Predict the 3D structure of the following.
Amino acid sequence: MTMIAGIGFASPWLLLGLLVLPLLWLLLRAIPPAPKRQLFPAVRLLLGLKDDESLSDRTPWWLLLLRMLAVAAAIIGLSGPVLNPAQDRSGSGPLLVVMDAGWGGAPHWQQNRTQIEEALAEAGRAGRPVALLRLTAPEPLQFLAAGRWERQLPGLTPAPWVAAPDQVQAAQELIAGVEGGFDTLWLSDGLAMPGRADLVAALAERGDIEVYESGAPVVGLLPATYEDGAIVLRALRSGAGLAQDLTVQALGPDPNGVERALAAATLRFEPGATHAEAQLALPMELRARISRFEVLETRSAGAVSLTDDRLRRREVALISAQSSDEGLALLSPLHYLRQALEPTAELLEGALADLLPANPDVVVLADVARLAPAQEEALVDWVDQGGLLLRFAGPRLAASDTARDTEEPLMPVRLRIGGRSIGGAMSWGEPKALAPFAEGSPFYGLEIPPDVTVSSQVMAQPDPELASRVVAELSDGTPLVTRKPLGQGQVILFHVTANAEWSTLPLSGLFVDMLERLAVSSAAKPPAAEDLEGTTWQAAEVLDGFGRLSDADTLGGVAGPDLVAAAAGPDVQPGLYTSGSRAYARNVLRDGDEIQPATWPTSVPVLRYEGAEERPLGGLMLSAALVLLVVDVLAALVVSGLWSPARVASLVLAAGLASALIATGPPAARAQEQAQAERGAPAATASPTELTSELTLAHVLTGDAQVDRVAQEGLRGLSNVLALRTSVEPAAPHGVDLEADELAFFPFLYWPVTEAQPLPSSAAYSKLNAYLRTGGMILFDTRDADLALAGATSGAARRLQQLALPLDIPPLEPLPADHVLTRAFYLLQDFPGRHPRGEIWVEAAPPDAEQVEGLPFRNLNDGVTPVVIGGNDWAAAWAVDQNNAPLYPVGRGFSGERQRELARRFGVNLLMHVLTGNYKSDQVHVPALLDRLGQ
């Protein structure tokens, strides 16, 4: 196909006919129009006269131009013009396919795959060897047959990071090692990356480059923060554009451990803005359940923000043996703990017996020597299950016999009798400073202020285990902080008081940092790289390029500073990391990051996946030529005087009115059809009185006129069947707008799921959940059972997952053979619609549903299912016209009509189940059912 001015021509040689137009102009100009013949009796007087000078009239220029345009349109139409013709990549020589293969390309990964498949197919036909290079995981280039790469395409997935400079440099070195030239097909994610310009220059030296991008801005989430009592969500996009709204869902486990959408917020990008922000105020209990935030309908690691301890304020129980005294606040054992923890933790104060049932994250005992046996046993069990017990010494502990002779479970080491006083009037020496923290200590890397000194402490008994339990010590080697594991938790002892009586440690910022390292509080801001110096973090779960979490398996540990400061890559993969009892969420985007669009040299053509559809123009041009010829005929008649202009105008006006009437139809009928197409329901709106006076079946309006019309026709057919075969006589079906209509009038909702239908608002979801709780039933129909049987997943099925996420739906199971739906009115084993054998899901049977001996079914009397989910397209099988004739084909021949009949019977059973519950499970029906079953 030849390209001329952006339009392709299948037969460009026909365009040479345009060169004849000047000759045709001169020819038509020279030939005058035919004279008009008019009978005039007096003309006999002119017979025999001769005119020596004869002048020929000329055809008007505008009529010549009209004829030239008609001929030109015909020539162009016959040459086969095509607007936006498909690009022809047929060429010769090797082909290199370069993929950014980062998280930015995950939303359009299928388009990448399609583009590669087309390129490989064309290369295979042309016999061109192909090599594949992923910039996020560069490997030596191997130019192989296209068929070899086609088998490897299903295993290609995007990485959850953008190619780093060293990876781009490695790719450039691999290209330099290849001899000879080659063309390049580059599938870009649309994100800027360091070193792209140098790589483009290197590829341009080898051959032609063609780049494909989606053209849509790439969207990413920054880590969520907790500020001023609310969660702050921030989003970025790669380019300024029109206004854009993003829905961000907060996901986490419900009380039953099932992951659900716990909350949602809308972030709005203003026109020209690349940043968006929203706040989400949630109670502490709900906030603590959030595990991640996701941008709805965007499958990429950058659209996911994992959460960790920073988002949740830990509950810390403060317990002291000393009663509080307002006049001696600075001497209170808990005063400095409150000051250090109050900004970042929820503090609980009271008796241990009252606070322990609340299951706090940390229990702090300030100078508590002894506990009641029952309390001590309960506290041991709490620590054993993962709790953190933090103890501080004091006069009471020093004077007691706690852990003197034997090691106690709630004390990390054995203690000596009495305490040690340093630098007092009755002691030798000066107060001791802290020794630098050892490399294995959780405090390693913290800077010790010179003014932090210790004047008194409780001493640890020498023990073989003592050295392994010391995490901080004084300059003379005596323990300052010791700890030991106890079950899944740990016990930690500060050998000084929690106030400034024995040391200046509570007066310094080091005290707050040490508590944070022990995970006593939650930091409102992310830790700096230097704060994690000396720590090693192990990945628990990691994100893939599509934003899905998976186990980290055997990934190695990551140094604390690298986890915070290093760019995401193979060594620091985005995910959830742990170190001891602390957790850190390493997201794709970090605070302060920006995402920029990719830029390309002007010499490199950049094409869009969503390019304009190929459109043949031949028919349009030939139609234009025909219209111009008709206009030419009319104009010639006017010029020659055979027709008057008024007559031509009247004919054109009459033809235009007739065409308009045919196209639009009667105004009233057209308005009714338009209303039904838009609403999927009768034009007249039923009043609440009418809806409550008769049973009305309803369907959810999806916004797709065709789908809504089929649903309306299907429920009309089901209503007719119910009226003919049962005592139920439904009124005309009704289309329901979830945002505006009341649902309580309808016992049954048919919800056809489409891929593009919008998500309901929070208010609509509240109505839906109330509807399900009060006895309503929803039949979700994805209409994709033909794909499900082939093992594929449709867009409607994925949309159903998003639609159902905020709904209060009970656990589901495939429809069992003894469910009441199989015998509510008809005895059925198959439930086809337009598709014959799709799987149906209903509420799972209760655990106590038992099989009674001698009966073919269990007792499910209280198990009325609020939802039924399937994909058999029942509305198309039920649908009838005004004469009750089926509208859509089902199956073939007699078997198809049998399938339609079973679909109708399923509809009857479904409505009987909705209206009467599980009365067919009652024992009174057993003899009749056994007789019908032949038992």
User: Anything to note?
Assistant: The longest strand covers residues 259-269. Residues 323-329, 424-428, 665-684 have pLDDT under 50 and may be disordered. The radius of gyration is 40 Å.
